[in-house]
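quick q for whoever's on today - can somebody do inverse folding on this one?? i tried earlier but teh output was garbage lol. tokens:
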């Protein structure tokens, strides 16, 4: 018997900020799982900033979404039928066929998780792709070392909040930027950042200098633009930046000016290194081993902004790009 379900498709390629009309909700019939396949009922799906780039028909590190086809991305769900070895009905799994209520896919593309005592949605955030991004970006790409002062932009988001907390657990001074007084208070009072500021309150460069008068050594970049320029000014000698994302540019319809202080990179011997999380899959076990116990005992805090219903996923994504989330934005299905 087939399974009736719903999915979100890309109806039009956005120009600038996405609109609800760029998406469509479609009803489909899924076939029964074949050999080595499973049928999953998704319980949560992820919306992430990188998805905006995939809505453009341009060559990038990952193929663009196709018009008229279902979108995809991280999801967690329950196996409801299985022909795959090692996967049983009732297992909680994560996979990459989000933006739909059910999915049929090969067992090899599914990862079983132990959700005992941890919310399932955490495997889309602090223990999922954003968590791995923070972990590998901070430790491997930026090369965090003893005594480093760390600056994180977009620090109240899913990636930035964990990057800052990992640095704090390892004994570092951490400064974060966010876009509201409430988020700044969250960084200081809940997540333990040493300093935090609202980038809307004035010059990012001036606020960063005030927060880190002795300079910074590591910058975890989720924003780009004026934040990257400020970090370059604030870097000590041999500063390192992990360039994770530049959300300030994602909806831009014209090229943004580059940081105006690039010559500073030479004199300070600064390293700017971009990275993609899929290059660091081998670090998943290390992430789970170090971060899961800290989540379980409360040393690492995480927040989620939860929207309900597949039909509300497009608006959740639009709101994510507007900065309406604190922590991970997920959609409960």
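ok took a stab at it. sequence:
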């Amino acid at each position: 018997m087939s399974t009736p379900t719903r999915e979100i498709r890309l109806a039009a390629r956005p120009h600038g900020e996405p609109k609800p009309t760029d998406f469509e909700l479609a009803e489909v019939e899924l076939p029964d799982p074949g050999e080595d396949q499973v049928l999953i009922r998704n319980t949560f799906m992820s919306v992430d900033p990188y998805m905006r780039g995939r809505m453009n028909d341009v060559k990038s590190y990952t193929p663009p979404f196709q018009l008229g086809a279902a979108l995809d991305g991280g999801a967690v769900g329950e196996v409801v039928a299985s022909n795959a070895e090692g996967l049983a009905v009732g297992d909680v799994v994560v996979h990459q066929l989000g933006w739909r209520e059910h999915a049929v896919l090969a067992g090899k593309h599914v990862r079983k998780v132990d959700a005992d005592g941890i919310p399932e949605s955490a495997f889309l955030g602090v223990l999922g792709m954003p968590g791995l991004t923070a972990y590998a970006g901070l430790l491997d790409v930026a090369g965090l070392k003893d005594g480093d002062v760390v600056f994180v932009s977009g620090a109240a988001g899913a990636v930035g909040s964990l990057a800052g907390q990992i640095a704090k657990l390892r004994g570092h001074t951490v400064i974060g930027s966010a876009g509201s007084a409430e988020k700044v208070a969250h960084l200081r009072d809940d997540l333990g950042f040493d300093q935090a500021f609202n980038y809307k309150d004035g010059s990012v460069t001036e606020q960063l200098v005030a927060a880190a008068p002795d300079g910074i050594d590591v910058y975890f970049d989720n924003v780009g633009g004026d934040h990257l320029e400020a970090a370059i000014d604030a870097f000590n000698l041999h500063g390192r930046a992990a360039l994770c994302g530049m959300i300030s540019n994602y909806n831009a319809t014209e090229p943004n000016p580059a940081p105006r202080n690039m010559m500073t990179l030479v004199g300070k011997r600064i390293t700017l290194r971009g990275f993609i999380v899929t290059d660091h899959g081998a670090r998943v076990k290390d992430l789970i081993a170090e971060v899961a116990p800290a989540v379980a005992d409360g040393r690492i805090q995480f927040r989620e902004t939860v929207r309900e219903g597949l039909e509300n996923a497009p608006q959740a994504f639009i709101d994510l790009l507007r900065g309406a989330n604190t922590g991970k934005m997920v959609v409960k299905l």
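fwiw The two ends are 22 Å apart (CA to CA). also The chain has a mean pLDDT of 95. so keep that in mind when u check it
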